[in-house]
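Bug #2210: token dump truncated for carbonic anhydrase?
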Amino acid sequence: MRRCRNTPFAIVIAPILICASLVLAQDFGYEGRHGPEHWSEDFARCSGKHQSPINIDLVSAVEKKFPPLTLLNFKVVPQNLQMTNNGHTVLVKMTYNEDEIPSVRGGPLAEKTPLGYQFEQFHFHWGENDTIGSEDLINNRAYPAELHVVLRNLEYPDFASALDKDHGIAVMAFFFQVGVKSTGGYEGFTNLLAQIDRKGKSVNMTNPLPLDEYISKYLGSYFSYTGSLTTPPCSEEVTWIDFTTPIDITEKQLNAFRLLTANDDHLKNNFRPIQPLNDRTLYKNYIDVPIHNMGSIPFVDAENAAGRWRPQAAAVLLPLVVLVALSRTSVFRGF
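Reproduced locally. Full output below:
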């Protein structure tokens, strides 16, 4: 049998080709042969029964009074903030002194561990227009973008070890709404996006802002459920906290995300379709409304209130008019 003269070369190149094919097989995207419907071919857990995102059906949500959420070090300015276009999203890492890393306790997390959860990173999902973009939906309604703040259970020493554990990871999710002004630090943040326009690019923020500047200002109203990561490997047993108060962002700032590219195409619609709830329970945090604050609740539409309340107002004012008239008579002059 004739020997192949290129045998040494073949021995060297074969493992490289095998590794390259594995890397390509493990890639994922949001459309085509690497889209969400094919993720489970390379990542088995993506076909699990407790996956995220979901549609938050307000009617089916069960009210539950969770302990108060406690945010620690969210107002601490990080030593560094790095933004990276990884081809799937804008990934943000923040560097802190060891004793100043942001963490969260209480709320739905209190049932998982008394130690709390520590901040790891945050990233974004968005759509090509304002009608789509968020991953979780509320009553089948999508927001134009969504922020995920990823946390690690402090019972585990690092993210990798927490990834496959029960309640090892938690995600704080925030919706975006388009407004005339933006929340917190998004003006400076989105101005830097042009510097990471292509996959693999990173930039450090010169004057980083604390984590508190990138989330909603009111955290009392939220939904919670047990789900998964919304990207491969789609690990389950992730505790989700979806806050109902949106983050404000301008159309111009949102368009800065839509101009980013990955693999020579615009990085857009990087959201996974909703997954079935199956046997899971969706919880709504119960909020006490103090009785002395009841007067501030708008029970009627302000525009129609005047016309609707005129008869009642007249009924109240009429006796007052009579009293004023009588006060001018001799009957009341002795008082």
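Output looks complete on our side. Residues 198 and 265 are 9 Å apart (CA to CA). Marking as cannot-reproduce; reopen if the truncation happens again.
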